[in-house]
């Protein structure tokens, strides 16, 4: 079970507790700061269970937030290729073409944000949040997906032209204050509310919030009609607002890629944003909480 491991000016984890009839403990991936509750269940338990409760303080991010510089090693990490986010070949070629004529880092990011919003689209039939295999997306020309696809594409393109960028994996906790159904969670059950966002590091601003995937989501799913113009009155505020800002109705777990779960016999995961379970036959389907049998909920606590 992932725990909120991101501690910044816009999120402060306040503690975790857990209960289980298995052997439960908090573990880390040892490399990228991912924290999880890991549980081993002995054979024959009639009803194995684990319950995890996390408290976290969040706030919205705005374009005028104070710049906080980061260290060189963190910025290098946010430029490296990963298994699903290569930065050479068709990824770099696409990024160079999309940023042609852009000189500054912010101009490059603006060009890539616009390119992704124009060329990628929300595909509701994709399972979960998608897989984020950006090389395959570009090679096939199928740029339809969900947040872990579309924001991964944006992050990979930014890295390919030398702008530090990272995916931020988390979950929606509450409705949007701006009235958009697709930008929040309107249910007490959050088992399908996972959402990946993105950040880029701009020299003049520091780490800056981005979410082209949510622009695509509103365009495709906010109304029965698929809206394909960013100047539409419904879309224009989202298109402008999600370049440099995001709401605090969401909690971040981590920013990690290629995560090898402690004790797992399986391969490294592209990212960790869902509860995961593994038995002798391999992974259970984390995208199907009904058969995997897990429930996620949230409650707001007044500060």
Q: What does this entry look like structurally?
A:
- It is a single chain.
- With 303 residues, this protein is α+β, with helices and mostly antiparallel strands.
- Helix 3 (105-119) packs antiparallel against helix 5 and helix 3 (105-119) packs parallel to helix 6 (212-221).
- Helix content is 24%, strand content 22%.
- The model has no long low-confidence stretch (mean pLDDT 93).
Any descriptors?
single chain, 303 residues, alpha+beta, four-stranded antiparallel beta sheet, two-stranded antiparallel sheet, 8 helices, 12 strands
Short description:
The chain has helices at 72-77, 89-98, 105-119, 134-140, 147-160, 212-221, 236-241, 289-292, and strands at residues 11-20, 23-28, 35-40, 50-58, 121-122, 144-145, 165-172, 194-202, 206-210, 250-254, 278-279, 282-283. It has 303 residues and is of the alpha+beta class.
Q: For the terminal residues, how far apart are their CA atoms?
A: 26 Å
Percentage of residues in DSSP E strands: 15-25%
Radius of gyration: 19 Å
Q: What level of helicity do the residues show?
A: 10-25%
Mean pLDDT: 93
What sort of overall outline do the alpha carbons produce when their principal axes are compared? globular
* DSSP, total strands: 12
Compressed to H and E, one letter per element, the order equals EEEEHHHEHEHEEEHHEEEH
Structural class: alpha+beta
Strand order, largest beta sheet: 9-8-7-10
Describe the main β-sheet briefly: 4 strands, antiparallel
Helical region count?
8
Uncertain segments are none
